[in-house]
Amino acid sequence: MKWQKKIFLVLIVICTVSLLLHHGGHFTWNMDAFHFGCSHQSPGPKPKHTNTVFLKTHKTASTTMQNILFRFAERNNLTVALPVQACGHQFCYPRSFSSHFVHLHTLRPNLITNHMRFNKTALQRLMPNDTKYITILREPASMFESLFTYYSRHCMSFRRVPNGSLEAFLAEPSRYYRPQEIDSMYARNTLTFDLGGDKDNSIKDLAYAQNFVADVEKVFSLVMISEYFDESLILLRHLLSWDLEDILYVKLNMRTESSKKRLSPGLPEKIRAWNSIDAYLYDYFNASFWDKLSDLGLDCVAKEVQLLRQAQERLMRSCFGGKMPLPRPAAEIKNKDLRPWQPSDKVDIVGYDLPVNISREAQEHCLKYIMPEISYTRILLHSQSLQHRRSYQNRPVQKSHTLQQHIRTTLPRHSQVHRSQPAPSVGQSPASGTESKSTPKQS
């Protein structure tokens, strides 16, 4: 696939120059221009697809994707399934997803995107029949470095390592790794675990990896690739018949450069060997990702990517007083709702603050683009709870009573979501309902 990637990069450069020349050096966009990129694939406008499950994986740019979905839901008055209070801002991860973890005020959802461990059976019961399933993967070596740094204080497998050395861990991973421990999923085959698979399956068991990939491919209509985030959004746009506005974003949950560790020679190969199922998963879907781009047409995808990036720059300048934003450490952000969660004093996660000299309208429009996951989840839950109460109050008494009886018989009270259930066995299947202890965290 390397030749396709090189051709694609050349096309991006050509599109940039041609767009600037066409507009006399000044770029403006409209929807007609955006649809022109792949117009042969879109013979006419289609209704936007709204029912979507996005499996939010760890350290893959999934928080940025979640923010896109949250904003889409608000603009289109959709219901987002959100976790009960006992689960925090995740669906009691790392327990296998259950409808018991969904807040009563967010039932009958169109979208679901907060962290969970995938459970196909439970999700298919919860979501409409026409739901599209989407997830995102990242190259295992860079992803594992991010996991190791980010969860260095939360994952015992990493805490045991002398001086927090990634090299030492990879030299003898079995010396530090305990598969049954809480948070062990951050230390091996995290993508596989998030997708409901067996993170500790034998490296030599190629048949398991092949069958697991086949199961994922049957369920998920799109597997995005973190390294090609914009291209992934173009595929998403066509899958769901969305517009340019629907896929605009600001990068969220980023580490400072000083918080990143450069991988020394030989470490990427060791990481891929230790995370062999993740590596197989990524390599397979990276190849199929480029097949999807080729099917759409690399030239038209390149045009749409460029139009997206131009619109992105306009958004940034309108939100940050005509300048490109500089990410700030959390302590320097005045608005507490905009401060990203900090996993430890060794990792700096940066965020944004809006300038005071932009209009109130711009403030309201731009605020949600830069809002961290925990704050946005809390605000969405408050908003949907208010809507639920208004709707409940307006129902006839008899119907309201019937609905309440239905809820009581199908879902437990929040206090019934316990954190003391046993950890899952390492052999459970991708659709398993077996659950482990819940230790919700930001990721």
Summarize the structure in words:
The chain has about 450 residues and is mainly alpha-helical. It has one domain (about 50-300, about 320-415): 3-Layer(aba) Sandwich (Rossmann fold), CATH 3.40.50. It is about 45% helix and about 5% strand. Helix 1 (about 1-20) crosses helix 14 (about 300-320) and helix 10 (about 205-220) crosses helix 13. The protein is globular, with a radius of gyration of 22 Å. It starts with a helix and ends in a 33-residue tail after the last helix. Mean pLDDT is about 85; it is low at about 15-35 and about 400-443.
Biggest beta sheet attributes? 5 strands, parallel
Q: How confident overall, as mean pLDDT?
A: 84
Number of helices: 17
Rg is: 22 Å
Overall helicity: 40-55%
Strand content: 5-15%
Strands in their spatial order, largest beta sheet: 2-3-1-4-5
Biased composition (Polar residues): 418-443
GO molecular function: galactosylceramide sulfotransferase activity
Main location: Golgi
Region (Disordered): 411-443
Give short descriptive properties of this protein.
443 residues; mainly alpha; Rossmann fold; 5-stranded parallel β-sheet; 3-stranded antiparallel β-sheet; globular
